[in-house]
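Q: A reviewer asked whether we had any structural model of the full assembly, not just the individual parts. We don't, so I'm hoping you can provide one. Inputs are below.
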Amino acid sequence: MQFFSSDFKLGILGGGQLGKMMLYETRKWDIYTKVMDASPEAPCKIACNEFVEGSLMDFDAVYNFGKDVDVLTIEIENVNLDAMEKLEHEGITVYPPTKTLRTIQNKATQKLFYTDHGIPTSSFTRFAYTSEIEDSISNGGLQLPFVWKSAQFGYDGQGVKVVRKMDDLKGLPNVECIAENLVDFKNELAVIVARSSTGEIKTYPVVEMEFHPEANQVEYVICPARIDDAVAQKAKDVALKVSEHMKHVGLLAVELFQTHNDEILVNEVAPRPHNSGHYSIEASYTNQFEQHIRAILGLPLGKTDSKVAGIMVNLVGAEGHTGDVVYENIASILEMDGVTPHIYGKRQTRPFRKMGHVTIVDEDMTRAREVAQKVKETIKVMTNK
Amino acid sequence: MQFFSSDFKLGILGGGQLGKMMLYETRKWDIYTKVMDASPEAPCKIACNEFVEGSLMDFDAVYNFGKDVDVLTIEIENVNLDAMEKLEHEGITVYPPTKTLRTIQNKATQKLFYTDHGIPTSSFTRFAYTSEIEDSISNGGLQLPFVWKSAQFGYDGQGVKVVRKMDDLKGLPNVECIAENLVDFKNELAVIVARSSTGEIKTYPVVEMEFHPEANQVEYVICPARIDDAVAQKAKDVALKVSEHMKHVGLLAVELFQTHNDEILVNEVAPRPHNSGHYSIEASYTNQFEQHIRAILGLPLGKTDSKVAGIMVNLVGAEGHTGDVVYENIASILEMDGVTPHIYGKRQTRPFRKMGHVTIVDEDMTRAREVAQKVKETIKVMTNK
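A: Here is a predicted structure for the entire assembly that you could use as a starting point for your response.
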């Protein structure tokens, strides 16, 4: 099948940042794309060949969108699976397969999947309703502290909460949920596994999330992770085991905990390009977006090695600033060697809103890390006031 | 001035391949773009924010297009300069400046510029009409062989001709032209110079065009050129001298001849991203398109070094094939490490039509060169028949 400058049509559900970066690759190869997103301001509205405004959770919208594409993929998991399943049955190629998405979309199902397949993950308890948790604690079934997670997506901003005392349960939605052991980890790692429709599999190097000492927030994604080879190998093995059992097609980003005794536990996965792989645009021989396209089209997978060390810094809105965005000192970071900002194009900023990311590449990791810190300290996402 | 996610508007004259690759960068930085091209099928029609259909040589079209942009640039020199000059006078920022474009657009003026500024170039004679050449030869003024070049652009496919015998003059348009000494060169080199509106200047490494032994056609663009450092330095010095006197803003691609006694002669220049810089997308810390944007917006110039060795192969239509394009064996080249095809998206191929390019990158130049040859021998741009 010819994908390039032909009548082939690729459908993408979701027109956000990941979709936008995927479109650089479809443009590079002149692959015809059709994108659906609920927002008329979606970043993908330009650069795709056809744009459809519609809700990703709406059966009819997704079904009608997918009917005339050759291959259907996603840039976000939160889509209507019944519609995708119907499309699958009617012969549309859907990657990742609906089955994979069903396993991942519900966090309780996802955790059960790990335990069923002997994949190491933090222990957890499943609840039909949040309201059942109090009883379970009072009769000694569940211990504080734990991480509360709603099973389904879409509770914006309140899908996850660390519960240290009974009071923390107040205000949580009364929905299907899980209570996870709070893992006291040494490192948070991630491995992106690419699996093609032909079954070919490749892994990217293990990356490390470096957290801010005080604010418990990821500050840097570092490739390669600064860990022992043995731990890195263990992380890859666990990621490959997840990939093998999930039978995804496309990318699978596997987020992992490295415990203090170097155990590797799966935190969660995403069956698509992922924030932890953004460094690959500047650092890798094959960036994650091109790799996802290669995988779902059954093309040979590209080399996953890095040309140079890569670090990614998220650009989030500064506290106390809400309104028209201004990227303060962006010219100063452009003066630094190997620094590439990616601006997501949201006109409005607000505290902690994800507005873009910056990649820092260098032959030398130590120098890259120093530049990354300078970048972090220099650029500010704020408003004019 | 804020360029990112703001009301700033960048105008680009020309919506072809170079414009398309420039748009990857404006998208990356969320810079609002308005593009004009004569063809409704122009590759830039998508991925820009506004597309205007109009002739680049038409005064009114260019003038009306440029009136509401903040900065106006080009992806091709063949544009209406009177309109750009009027826009300049009315306060629109035009980069490269019209003055630079006037010097370059007319090949006789361009050659005179080199001699006036003591820049080494092959000797030449200027003629008001091609018809004057015969007399000049018969009365011993001009010697065969020489290279005939029409002074003005736009004689598609017949702007340049090597004249070895009187007969070769037949059928040439009777226009203003030059007769250039035929240079017997050892290497054809190129140096891309970036000059920002602030005056900052950076050069990319010297690249080498490797020609096919029989067909006298560029097969590979190789970065860095496999030449002595002394020659490379001389090439950079000549390119910088041209840049300094041209006072361009943005990129200047300087094509050079290295003679058998290692003289460096300027062949011609292009004040924009150039085919000889395509390797930079995969190989350089800052690709040429991002660099052009940095330069015309007065942002700091990026690092021009390479992460790895880079080689570019042009993808041209195979002989004997005219019609709907098929990229034969493209999957086979995707199996090779460090290989990235760029498909320009023309639906129709014809012999020698430029349909795309392929970049090969590797830590090791020798290996890169081997892979480049395999790529060249493997992929074929043809039709289904």
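A: Points you may want to mention in the reply: The mean pLDDT of chain B is 95. The longest helix of chain B spans residues 229-246.
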